[in-house]
Amino acid sequence: MGIHQKRLKVIEFTIDGTSFECQVNTWNLDPGIEDGDRLYSFCPDGEAVEETDPEPTLEIKFFSDWRSNGISAYLWEHNGETAEFELNHHPNVPGEHVKWTGELIIKPGPAGGEVRETEFTEVTFQCVGLPVFERVS
Residue 3: inside a domain, yes or no? Predict the structure, then answer.
């Protein structure tokens, strides 16, 4: 099979039904699945791998938006709430459109930055459980 590559260009991203994809600059959905520790004993079959719990996160870098319906203000106004999210990846590419749905815990990002620089908000949200992966046809 030959190489197949695709540039990241378009996503659809909502938190509690409100679209914020136009403010997103960077995103990374990490399932947070770590390898378990190996455990040993002196018996003949004395090796096991310890079970681990996933700690999924959704890391997003937004262009800051402090308008009344903007993402930066939304995060501050809903701090600590659990909200549903949906992230559609390659929504405009037939055969490659996939999405994740789940819940995340809202937290605000830091405000501010350097003078005359574009203002960004970077947040790593904790997901409640592992987001559900689905292929969209």
Answer: no
